[in-house]
Amino acid sequence: MAELAEKTALVTGGTSGIGLAVVRRFVQEGAHVFVTGRTSAKLDAVKAELGDAVTVITGDVSRPEDLDALFTTVSEYGRGIDVVLANAGGGEFAALEEITWEHFTETFESNVGGTVFTVQKALPFLNPGASIVLTSSNIDVKGSPSFSVYAASKAAIRSFARSWAAELVDRGIRVNAVAPGPIATPGLAGLAAEPEQAEALLGGLAAGVPMRRLGSPDEVAEAVLYLASTRSSYVTGTELYVDGGASQI
Q1: Which CATH number fits domain 8-92+104-180+217-241: 3.40.50.2000, 1.10.533.10, 1.10.3720.10, 3.40.50.720?
Q2: Per the confidence metrics, is the pTM higher than 0.90?
Q3: Does the annotation count 241 as an active-site position?
Q4: Which of 5, 91, 132, 234 could be a cystine partner for 150, CB 3.0 to 4.6 Å?
């Protein structure tokens, strides 16, 4: 039997990379998925691929009015939410002396603020036994030159998983984080200043992983599915690393 049959899920940042892999996996397991993204053309492609199994909503999680529009759509659907993957976010390299208020604010508004208010606004719609999964990163326990603001934002996500798990346990709602390492996504390659530098960047990241390769979005999606499903019914407040051992070995 499909693990998410008759369930309703929300995936923010679901048009590419890890988010899109999770949307596809949830649909394979029987869920109806609300998918958000900032680019209408990418959302149209998701809709064309997955059809009536998804409802797509254009929006930016750092904009309160966009979140209001998202949850108006959820309310109109009328089935509540069983799974939330708060995944939208991103980051850019900036050495300490290069950090600007704009860089800091944009990163924290998207990664931290977007996560806080996505989950907060989802609360009235969460069905009994719902699962919340937050996308963190293995960088939340590592030091990385020129990536400190992004790392700090992901450390905040890890803290949220603990605190919200404690707050919501009496409602039967579980909260966990998934912490990918370097995953072969367009966003990772996009960290390179120039396209020709992307190969060197990805090769260097793979060399730093004990398994000597990048992970795939599908591998992260399997971890998210575990945390979203009843297979993890006794798991809350934890962080699941999907990083080839990079943070553990």
Answers
A1: 3.40.50.720
A2: yes
A3: no
A4: 91
